[in-house]
Amino acid sequence: MSKLIITAAICGAEVTKKHNPSVPYTVEEIAAEAEAAYAAGASIIHLHVREDDGTPTQCKERFQKCFDAIKAKCPDVIIQPSTGGATGMTAEERLQPVSLSPEMASLDCGTCNFGGDEIFINTENMIIEFAAKMREYNVMPELECFDKGMIDMALRLAGKNHISGHLHFNFVLGVNGGISATPRDFLFMKESIPKDATFTVTGIGRAEFPMAALAIISGGHVRVGFEDNIYLSKGVLAKSNAELVAKAVRLADELGRGIATPSEAREILRLS
Ligand code: KMH
Ligand code: ZN
Fold it and tell me: What residues make up the domain containing 217?
């Protein structure tokens, strides 16, 4: 089994300082959270950015500032900007960070409800357009799948060469509108991808660490962070993303799985 890649999703678009005062908004806060998460064992930073008042933005200049600030503190970390942004954003808005040629970016593989009245829109043509732009800028997509049908979509588009290269999935389990975070549904997702593909598991809310444990023992990789969960344990807010990463490292340690450095992560993901 390969070493474990830990992704820290440090910021997100939905969670705010009202939910957890440690959620980073400013460039400095985002860079500090990224650095601490990296020091704790994260090799990938899944990045959303905010205005200073917390408003989510996909502004290219804001991403550039955050990239620079993160790279100044941890030059070898893999930065994976979101192209999901926040619900309601246009495709053009969402695609902006891709033209900065990051090593990776998220590629959301279908439309789903996203709690309450929110709909996260990713039509087939949008996915094709996003994948084409990622190819143009030499960006590896992380195939974000909130449901099994999104895996089917990604594989169909890979079959038509809209998506090429090594396939790396992110199973996001437990969104209110996506597939549930249960061992059965995790296995359904895992067994639906090609044997030579790699995958990360993102469990939402209290499912974060149970799903991480399943990923660790089954050869997958793990995503943790404020985007997905703000609690270290029941009723205890995490003080930082680094605390969540450290808990994933402890789990991996107990289960006998080593932690990948960024350069090991690049090898596992065929990025290098
Ligand atoms: N904020 C969600 C609507 C991604 O980063 O690619 C979408 C999201 C997915 O977070
Ligand atoms: Zn995201």
Answer: 6-268
Return all residues near 190 (Cβ < 8 A) that are at least 6 apart: 171, 199, 218, 220
Q: What value does the mean pLDDT take over residues 125-151? A: 98
Query: Does any domain span residue 91?
Result: yes
Give residue 265 CA to ligand 1 midpoint distance, Å: 22
- At 235-272, the pLDDT tens digits run 999 999 999 999 999 999 999 999 999 999 999 999 97
Angle between helices 148-159 and 183-190 (to 10 degrees): 10
pTM for the full model? 0.98
Q: Report H helices in 50-182.
A: 60-73, 91-95, 124-136, 148-159
Give the CB-side neighbour count of residue 133, counting CA atoms within 13 A. 20
Instruction: Give yes or no for a contact between 149 and 164, defined as CB atoms under 8 angstroms apart.
Output: no
Q: Determine, yes or no, domain membership for 18.
A: yes
Name beta bridge partners: 81. 47
The answer to whether 238 and 244 are in contact (CB under 8 A) is yes
Task: Note whether residue 124 is domain-resident.
Answer: yes
Looking at residue 165, what is its pLDDT? Answer: 97
Asked, for residue 145, whether it belongs to a domain, the answer is: yes
Q: Ligand 1 atom closest to Cα of 14?
A: 1
Residue that the structure tokens 């009245």 belong to: 117
| Alpha carbon of 143 to ligand 2 centroid (Å) | 12
Q: Closest by alpha carbon to 7, among 106, 90, 108?
A: 106
